[in-house]
Amino acid sequence: MAFRFEDWMINHYLQQGYVVFRGVVPPSLCDDLRREIDKARDMAHAINPQAQRLQPVAKYEGQIDQKPFQDYCDLPALRDAIDRLLGPDFTTGQRSMMGIFVEPRDQPWTIGWHRDGVVEVPLEAQDEELRLAMDEFWHDLRGWNQVNCAIYADSCTWYVPGSHLRSRDLPGEKQYNTDKEINTRIAAMSPAEAERKCLDLCHRFPGAVQMHLGPGDYMLYRQLAWHNGNYTPWARRGTIHDGAFYTKPLPPAIAKWQETKKAAVARMNARQAVPVTV
After folding, report:
1. Which residues lie closer than 8 Å to 123 by C-beta, 6 or more apart?
2. What is the CATH number of the domain that holds 253?
3. Does any domain span residue 54?
4. Could you read off the pLDDT of 218-237 as tens digits, one per residue?
5. Within 10 Å of residue 12's Cβ, how many Cβ atoms?
6. Is 3 a domain residue?
7. Domain range spanning residue 88?
8. Predicted TM-score of the model (pTM)
C-alpha cells in the first residue's frame, strides 16, 4: 500500500519527537539505492573495517551513482509529507550533507547515548548562561530535524521518546559516546561479549525504545532527544542519514550556537584555572 500522510503524525512528532513514514521510498527506488549503498559499504570498510558511515554522498560522485539519491530527495510523497509536517521552507535531503550508514565489518559496536547539538559541551560547562541560550532554541522546529531512511531493514537506532521536550537531563541519563574507556573495553571483547555489552548499554538507559524500520521507512526525529546507535557485523545495514533542513536564514540562537558552545567551554576553562585559596 502506498504511503499516505495522516494528521496524527504532526502531534506524534511534536509530542514524541519522532515520526516514521512507513514505506515512503518505493521498492523500485530501494533497488536502485541498494546497488549504490553496497558500493558505499565496501568503500567505507576499505577506509576502516569498523566504519559505520560514508559521508557526504556528493563527495563520491564518479564512484557512486548520484541519481538514485537525488531521486530520493525529490520524491513527491516525501516532499508533500515534509511540507505538511514542518512547512514548505524545508528540504527533503541534501547530497552535500547526506551520509550512508552501514554495519561495522568485524566487531559489534555502539555509538553511545547522546543528544546532538549539545554533545560537545561537557556537563561542567553547562552554566546558567549556556542553559539560557539552550532554552532560546530548544523548541524551535527550524533546527535539529534528523533523518534515518532505511533502505535495508534497520533496528539499530534507540531513542527516548519525549526527551526532546526538555533541555535538562533526568537521573540516570548520561552521555557516553565520547567515553574512550568504554570504547576500549568493547573493542577488546569477543564478538558475542561485545554484542551483549552494547545491547545492555541500550537497555539500561531510562525510557529507551528500539526503533524498527522496514525497507523504505523514513524516520524523522528531533536529534536533541537522547538517542543511540547499536550495530553488529551480521546485520546488514544500508540507511540514508540525512536531515530536513530549513532553507531560509536561521534564527540567531541557532545560527550562533557553535560560538555559544565555544564561549561556554572557555568560561569553564577560566573557572578551572583560578587557583583555590584557603
Report:
1. 175
2. 2.60.120.620
3. yes
4. 999 999 999 999 999 999 99
5. 16
6. no
7. 8-273
8. 0.94
